[in-house]
Amino acid sequence: MTRRQIHLAAHFPGVNNTTVWTDPAAGSQIDFSSFEHFARTAERGLFDYLFLAEGLRLREHRGRLHDLDVAGRPNTLAILTALAAVTEHIGLVGTLNTTFNEPYELARQLGTLDLLSNGRAGWNAVTSSDAFHGANFRRGGYLDHADRYVRASEFAEISKALWSSWRDDAIEADAETGAFLRAGAIARVRHASRLFDVDAVFDVPRSPQGRPVIVQAGDSADGRDFATAHADVIFSLHTEFADAQQFYRDVKGRLAAHGREEDSLKILPAATFVLGDTADEARERSREIALAQVRPQTAITYLEQIWNRDLSGYDPDGPLPDVEPDTGVETAQGFAGRHAAIRARVGKLREQAAAENLSIRELVIRLTANHTFVGTPEHVASEIDRYVQERATDGFTVVGHVTPHGLDEFADRVVPLLQERGSYRRSYDEGATLHDLLGLPAVRERVTAP
User: Where does the Luciferase-like domain start and stop, copy by copy (predicted)?
Assistant: First the structure.
């Protein structure tokens, strides 16, 4: 029986508490050499693509920069463009917002990257509706929360129309005059709604893959509907096996309504890993890494975002706060006005801490630093393969805990074992696009030029 092939993406770390900056091996999150090393490692490991997260504003907590944030965040498209020049095969995916960008300009930027990289570009389409991020654009709170996926869906529709508006034979070479554009080879794209009014003739030719791959990370009902209508990949948080299988069935089951097949959408959950020569060594390493990822102040900060109170007087290694949360104003986690929801969440946290006898720090570790795969390389490879063969996922987005060397050990010790199982490629096919690497069907959407 033919084995299902594993798809792997590589997540460049740095914008959450996964990254351990105190590790002696930690490097810069802004030097190009870090991005280059990471990209070359991912390409050496034959990954489908590397993935850059991006935030539109440095996070704040109690009037100060958030404990888990980093101050340096170079522009995603600039980094990916530079990486296109030092890699040959790997896909290049960036997180770019549908709320505070405009379809034509973003489609033009991504289309340019896709063209210049010979079809290796991808777009992680994310939404925002909160005033905190909007303040950077003088649009604070201008988009209703309910409209975030309405705008995202229209944004994707317009972008795909622009990318597909060139005929494949639009440009013809001429020995005397040079390349010229065939008459009627580009279709005009029109879209009028309460959110957008676009009347455009696109100026970027099609890439070898037709258009950039679209990745999506939302998990709400609207997010899942957006993914099944527009996305090629879902970056999910469902990593527990049974939960992952349920998510897989739900999302893949929605595809038929859009005329799509199971393999037209790949599900690649985020996955952390800790390796050891023995199971015991791996578990001990996991414990040490988790303690470094969730420092005492990190644990208190995490709870303060939920309680919306100053909890600095509580011992991180002691029990959960005995005070009730302040539900009167919006918190950093976005629970504005939802008093019952906040109290319900706090109640569940208290129940979990009591049932497992967890301190504040231990609880936060359990919630944010519970590593997906812990064990020998053989065990980790076996588990990754099991998830894919039994249709819990199509693969994983691998997240290391050190910048930029967090992927090295996985590429060196786990990838060869996946290859031995016959579940993972041994080389890149020459000229393969990101669509090809992911095993996606050919791009079908086309706009017929007059």
Answer: 25-391
Which has the closest alpha carbon to 379: 446, 280, 292, 307? 280
Give the range among 188-202, 218-232, 286-300 with minimum mean pLDDT. 218-232
Average pLDDT of the residues in 184-190: 92
Using CA atoms, how far apart are residues 342 and 340, in angstroms rounded to an integer?
A: 5
Model confidence pLDDT, tens digit, residues 52-91: 987 777 777 777 776 666 667 789 999 999 999 999 999 9
Strand pairing report for 180-181 and 60-61: unpaired
Torsion of CA 45, 48, 50, 54, to 10 degrees: -150
Q: How many CB atoms lie within 10 A of CB 81?
A: 18
Q: Which of 301, 395, 385, 233 is nearest to 63 (CA)?
A: 301
Predicted local distance difference test score (pLDDT) of residue 340: 81
Domain that holds residue 334: 295-368
Q: Would you say residue 449 has pLDDT above 70? A: no
Tokens describing residue 283: 């578990």
Q: What pLDDT sits at residue 450?
A: 45
Beta bridge partners of 169: none
| pTM attached to this predicted model | 0.92
Say yes or no: 204 and 334 in one domain.
no
Do 237 and 219 contact (CB within 8 A), yes or no?
yes
Q: Among 335, 368, 401, where does a domain finish? A: 368
Q: Does 13 share its domain with 44? A: yes
Question: Helix H segments across 147-240?
Answer: 148-163, 221-230
Are both 234 and 306 inside the same structural domain?
Answer: no
Q: Which residues of 289-328 are buried (b: 16+ CB within 10 A; e: fewer)?
A: bbebbbbeebbbbbbbbbbbeebeebebeeebbeeebebe
313 and 173 assigned to the same domain: no
Length of the chain: 450
Dihedral, 109, 115, 118, 120 alpha carbons, nearest 10: 30
Domain stops at, among 331, 352, 368? 368
Count of alpha carbons within 13 Å of 298, Cβ hemisphere only? 21
Task: Quote the CA–CA distance of 16 and 10 in Å, as a whole number.
Answer: 15
Distance CA 403, CA 270 (A): 17
**What gap in Å lies between CA 396 and CA 9, rounded to an integer?**
6
Q: What are phi and psi of 110, to 5 degrees?
A: -70, -40
pLDDT at 333: 45
pLDDT on residue 267: 98
